[in-house]
């Protein structure tokens, strides 16, 4: 099941954060950017 959290900016709506599940806690923005870019590249190749 996808992990979700709430965020004040979105009211009571749940925000899907499953695309970040493979990242380590405390990683920096460069690691997040690299991870998301790799996922996008994988999607383009499919």
Topology, element by element:
Elements: E1 4-6, E2 14-16, H1 29-45
Antiparallel strand pairs: 1-2
Give a brief outline of the structure.
Residues 1-24 are annotated as: Disordered. This protein has one helix at 29-45, and strands at 4-6, 14-16.
**Total domains, how many?**
1
Average pLDDT rating:
79
Strand order of the largest sheet: 1-2
Beta content: 5-15%
Number of helices: 1
Largest sheet geometry:
2 strands, antiparallel
| Integer-rounded radius of gyration | 13 Å
**C-alpha termini separation:** 23 Å
Give unreliable regions as ranges.
Answer: none
Principal-axes shape call: extended
What percentage of residues falls in helices of 4 or more residues? 25-40%
- DSSP, total strands: 2
Helix/strand structural class = alpha+beta
N-to-C series of helices and strands: EEH
Region (Disordered): 1-24
Q: What this model shows, in words?
A:
- This protein is of the alpha+beta class and 46 residues long.
- It has one domain.
- It has one helix at residues 29-45; strands at 4-6, 14-16.
- Strands 1-2 form a two-stranded antiparallel sheet.
- The longest helix is centred in the C-terminal third of the chain and has 17 residues, at 29-45.
- Residues 1-24 are annotated as: Disordered.
Protein traits:
single chain, 46 residues, alpha+beta
């Amino acid at each position: 099941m996808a992990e979700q959290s709430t965020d004040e900016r979105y009211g009571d709506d749940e925000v899907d954060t499953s695309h970040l599940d493979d990242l380590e806690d405390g990683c920096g923005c460069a690691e997040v950017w690299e991870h998301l870019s790799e996922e996008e590249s994988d999607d383009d190749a499919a």
